[in-house]
Amino acid sequence: MKWIFGFLVGAVLLSAPPAAVAQPMEIEAMLILASNDPAPLDRRLERVDYVLRPLLRFETYRLIGQGTVMVNTPGTASIALGDGHSVNLRTGRTRGSHVEVSWMRGENRLLGTSVSLQRGKPTILGGVPHEGGRLIVTLMVK
Questions:
Q1: Which of 24, 26, 34, 90 is the most buried (most CB within 10 A)?
Q2: 124-135 burial by CB neighbour count: b if 16+ within 10 A, else e?
Q3: What are the CA-CA distances from residue 34 to residues 38, 51, 66, 141 (Å)?
Q4: Secondary structure of the chain: what % helix, strand, coil (to 5)?
Q5: What are the residue boundaries of the structural domains of the chain, listed by start?
Q6: What is the mean pLDDT of the chain?
Q7: Contacts of residue 141, Cβ cutoff 8 Å, sequence gap at least 6
């Protein structure tokens, strides 16, 4: 009888799905120049404009570059944003959206931080001086 019980327990354990496997995250990054120079609204920024304006209070936001990447958990990835800028991303072992971010211009690290990303909500990084304004990076899980 013991061997039947052992066999049944083993069969159940072997047929059970693995513990929660973390799914890759699709992360979008945008490099934006914020300034007070008058210009029309850049329509490509409509998804983040509602966060930028009340937070940073610049007149104009212009998209410099953007990219999207799939990142495993745990895992690393990099997104080239144009003009020599990139963001390096590293996710941890835990489920969720905690990401370590390094914003680079060439070999120079402009910013390093850890953030918790929420699906569909932009996270704003930066304030790096550039051409009379400030460079900003937004990150968002799609």
A1: 34
A2: bbbebebeebbb
A3: 11, 13, 15, 22
A4: 20, 55, 25
A5: 21-141
A6: 85
A7: 25, 26, 27, 28, 97, 117, 118, 119, 120
Q: Among the residues of the chain, which ranges form H helices?
A: 2-15, 46-56
Q: Which of 61, 85, 64 is nearest to 133 (CA)?
A: 61
3-state class (DSSP) for residue 16: coil
Tokens of 9: 């327990």
Cα 2 to Cα 134: distance, rounded to the nearest angstrom: 71
| 3-state class (DSSP) for residue 48 | helix
Is 116 within 8 Å of 97 (Cβ atoms)? Answer: yes
pLDDT of the residue at 22: 64
Q: What does the DSSP 8-state code read for residue 121?
A: B
Q: Report whether 73 contacts 22 (CB < 8 A).
A: yes
Cis peptide before 74 (omega within 30 of 0): yes
| Structure tokens given for 42 | 């850049």
Instruction: State both tokens at 90.
Output: 């590293």
Tens-place pLDDT, residues 50-80: 899 888 889 999 999 999 999 998 999 999 9
